[in-house]
Amino acid sequence: MASRNDRANLGRWNAGLIRVDIGRDVRAARANAGISLRTAGAAADMSHAQFGRIERGVLQNLTVDQASRACAAVGLRLVARAYPDGGPVADAPQLALLGRFRARLPQAAGWATEVPLAIPGDRRAWDAVVTLAGNRIAVEAEARLRDIQALERRIALKQRDDAVAVVILLVNATTTNRRVLAAHREALRSRFPLDGHAILAALRAGRAPASGGIVLL
Predict the structure, then answer these.
(1) pLDDT tops 90 at residue 178
(2) pLDDT score at 124
(3) In whole angstroms, what is the distance from residue 164 CA to residue 153 CA?
(4) Is the whole model's pTM more than 0.90, yes or no?
(5) Per-residue burial over 83-92, b = 16 or more CB atoms within 10 Å of its CB, e = otherwise
(6) With contact defined as beta carbons under 8 Å apart, do 71 and 82 qualify?
(7) Taking CA 162 as the corner, what is the angle to CA 156 and CA 164, rounded to the nearest 5 degrees?
(8) Interior CA angle at 214 toward 175 and 199, to 5°?
(9) In whole angstroms, what is the distance from residue 199 CA to residue 196 CA?
(10) Hey, which of 41, 124, 159, 206 would disulfide with 51, CB 3.0 to 4.6 Å?
(11) Number of other residues whose CB lies within 10 A of the CB of residue 192
(12) 82-109 pLDDT, tens digit each
């Protein structure tokens, strides 16, 4: 079991990552909108110097209020969620879903679960990684769809940080999940362009899908 100090240090390390991610997003949004640092600072009710420190991820005691104001000043909305940290997949339906997907893979495919991102100290992990014909394919398994926007953002950040070209969103084929996907499928199309039949056909043929997609099983 990690000591109290270990947990505190992990929390500080994660806070640093969050500061950098928020700063990067704010700076990109400001640049895309053509807003000056001084104008953005005024809109956020802070000095342009403080706004700049937020963008660079160096404002050590950044508060949620400050981060939210900085985001709003450049047309973003800050959304924060907490997720279980580390440990194996504990959800029985999720394990069953991964098992059904693995059964669809060719024998030559490599398979590993709970695969950490290739960043020292980063505790995030892919639910599974398939290795096929020299290609690495990440898999995120969702037994029950809830917050689609939070799910997409979480996967986008992991894909960016781990430099994985193809991510498959694996979804339990329940009536509720089908209804949620029907409502949001087109919004997810840019990140997950392929549908299940195209992905499974590529895997059966022993090749990686051309891009990411969603598989209902």
Answers:
(1) yes
(2) 86
(3) 15
(4) no
(5) eeeeeebeee
(6) no
(7) 75
(8) 125
(9) 5
(10) 41
(11) 19
(12) 765 554 444 788 889 999 999 999 988 9
pLDDT at 83: 63
How buried is 45 (Cβ within 10 angstroms: 0-12 exposed, 13-18 middle, 19+ buried)? exposed
Give the pLDDT confidence score for residue 16 in this predicted structure: 84
Average pLDDT value for residue range 178-198: 93
Determine whether 183 is exposed, middle or buried from the number of CB atoms within 10 Å of its CB (0-12, 13-18, 19+): exposed
Give the residue from 190, 157, 123 showing the smallest Cα distance to 24. Answer: 157
According to DSSP, the residues that pair with 170 across neighbouring strands are 141, 215
Q: What's the whole-number mean pLDDT along residues 30-57?
A: 95
33-42 pLDDT, tens digit per residue, is 999 999 999 9
Instruction: Return the percent helix, strand and coil in the chain, to nearest 5.
Output: 50, 15, 35
How many angstroms separate the CA atoms of 46 and 100, rounded?
53
- Tokens 């100290």 found at: 121
Q: Coil, strand or helix: which one is 90? A: coil
